[in-house]
Amino acid sequence: MSVAELAGQVTGKLTETVRSIEVMRRAGLVPFPRLDEGVRSLVAIHRYGPFAGANHIAARRDPAAVGIVDDLGPLTFKQLDDQSNALARAWAERGLGPDSVIAALCRDHRGLVLTMAASGKLGARLLLMNTGFAKPQLADVASREGVTALVYDQEFTGLLDAVPGVDRYLAWVDEPGEHDIPVLTEIIASTDDRPLHAPAKRGGFVLLTSGTTGTPKGAPRPHTSPLASAQFLDRIPLRSGEATFMGAPLFHGTGLSQFILSFALGCTVVMRRKFDPELTLKGVADHRCTALVLVPTMLQRIVDLPPEVRNRYDTSCLRIIFVAGSALSPDLGNRANAEFGDVVHNLYGSTEVAVATVATPEDWKRAPGTVGRAPVGCRVALYDENGGKITAPNVPGRVFVGSGLSFGGYTDGRNKEMIDGLLSSGDVGHFDEDGLLFIDGRDDEMIVSGGENVFPIEVENLLVEREDVVEAAVIGVEDPDFGERLKAFVVRAEGADLDEDGVREYVKANLARYKVPRDVEFLAELPRNATGKVLRTKLS
Question: For a tag on the chain, would you pick the N or C end, based on fewer CB atoms within 10 A?
Fold first, then answer.
């Protein structure tokens, strides 16, 4: 590398750092002019990690401020800080510490939040389990990740014989009474809540991939830079001291990232154990939430509520509907903006690459369906099959991402393909003439029919534009003449009389002939995992 190239890299890095700090200052994360408080915040996160560190910062800033509101009511940041101290002490007395892996199989509630914070205070590694796991997945993941202790909700008791030989703790109890398993609330109440000494090193946490085609892989995050929060705040106008309704589950990167960021900003986080579209609107209205965090299937259920139900709740406080986790169709995004105003922020990323791009409401209005542009601290590039970089607009290529939040490899030692320091997202996409990114589909979902390439998302987005279609999925099925042909699975709106020929004729009138499904099957609903992604392996 030449001196000029090195100087250019250093200058670019400094410029990016300055931009990141300005973004954080604007949001309220950098307490100018009280820079001493900013230093204390950095120290807390360095010592305890993002969960406990953010909670500790918020408790110091305003001990009486409400940190979370769950099904049981409110808890202040100070109460969460004290109770997580007690939980960490209780676990330390039981032998848990820096060498432990604490798994949480919990829905969204205070028990999960306290588990997250206490794990950080011990320096233990936290493993966030998917509440949609079946026994084989739970067993495989627990064994691979070396789980030491399992914190779970009582409703998942029937899965636990798949994980023998680990300590167990109940985080949520559905049936009050005496239990053979220690209950978090009881051991917290019986333990000293004084602060602990900081662990020798941070434990970090492990996110799991969606696992739509097999056992989810572990994507560890041993540490993250505080500047990485600017990747969200650059294009999503979260502000300190407000309130966020958390619809997406915390075990998923969508919910977790916004939970940590909301805590760091001192925002109240409103959550429910189980998603309900009407109760979500009620929670937004009751707590005057300015941000609502969802996966697309949740947004679909909200906008599908009858108008008389939606109109019961004043949601004019919403400035942000943050959507991520799977593709947001142009039709759904447009319907949401029509209902709530121009508030939809569409984030594109993955468990591995974290943030790639964000479409602001202005981006969406210009080009519905876009995933927008890369924020500060992120890079996105397209490459062809030979590794050549694609710069021309409207030319599809494989999507590669560089981010300060990207992982460093799976827990089993494998990694994703890298080019020029950028990580493969596994998707194919294209830029338009304005530089806005569009995702055409997963590279492993492309259907080759009669020599023509078809991505299911194009046909699916077309079908859901119809008022008589609730949702649709398209897969490839074997065909002796064409290699593969398309098969569409369609969920009709209530009372709709759409038939197979109607589906085929609609696609034929709007897309190329080779994109017309040969087969059409109507379902009551599409099979999805806990984060709303379609389980295509269950369609045939």
Answer: N
Q: How many domains does the chain have?
A: 3
* 321 assigned to some structural domain: yes
Are residue 293 and residue 357 in the same domain, yes or no?
A: no
| Nearest C-alpha neighbor of 252 from the set 344, 385, 131, 404 | 131
CATH number at residue 430: 2.30.38.10
Residue 400, Cβ density class (10 Å: 0-12 exposed, 13-18 middle, ≥19 buried):
buried
Given its phi and psi angles, is residue 421 left (phi above 0), alpha (psi -120 to 50 degrees) or beta?
Answer: left
Q: Count of alpha carbons within 13 Å of 274, Cβ hemisphere only?
A: 4
For the stretch 5-14, pLDDT in tens is 455 554 556 6
CATH code, domain with 491: 3.30.300.30
Instruction: Work out the average pLDDT over 388-415.
Output: 83
- Sheet strand arrangement including 218-221: 167-172, 149-153, 101-105, 125-128, 205-208, 218-221
> Tell me: the pLDDT tens digits for 173-187?
998 877 889 999 999
Q: Which of 412, 442, 472 corresponds to the end of one domain?
A: 442
Domain boundary among 391, 411, 442: 442
Six-digit token string for 84 = 């997580």
Supply the DSSP string of 235-298, one letter for each residue.
TS---TT-EEEE-S-TTSHHHHHHHHHHHHTT-EEEE-SS--HHHHHHHHHHHT-SEEEE-HHH
Burial environment of residue 489 by CB neighbours within 10 A (0 to 12, 13 to 18, 19 or more): buried
Longest dimension (CA), the chain: 72
Q: HSE on the CB side for 387, CA within 13 Å?
A: 7
Q: Is the pLDDT of residue 220 over 80?
A: no
- Listed residue (358, 344, 341) closest to 436, CA to CA: 358
Structural domain containing residue 506: 447-538
> H or E element: which one contains 439?
strand 437-442
Contacts of 24 (CB under 8 A, 6+ apart): 30, 227, 229, 230, 233
Q: Please, are residues 100 and 148 in contact by the beta-carbon 8 Å criterion?
A: yes
Distance between the two ends of the chain, CA-based, in angstroms? Answer: 52
Cα separation values, 403 from 109, 224, 226, 314, 351, Å: 30, 11, 13, 37, 12
Per the domain annotation, does 369 fall within a domain?
yes
The three-point CA angle 203-46-33 to 5° equals 155
Tokens encoding 173: 């109890």
Q: Is residue 9 part of a domain?
A: no
Statement to judge: residues 411 and 528 lie in one domain: no
HSE of 119, CA atoms in CB hemisphere, 13 A: 29
Half-sphere exposure of 490 (CA within 13 A, CB side): 33
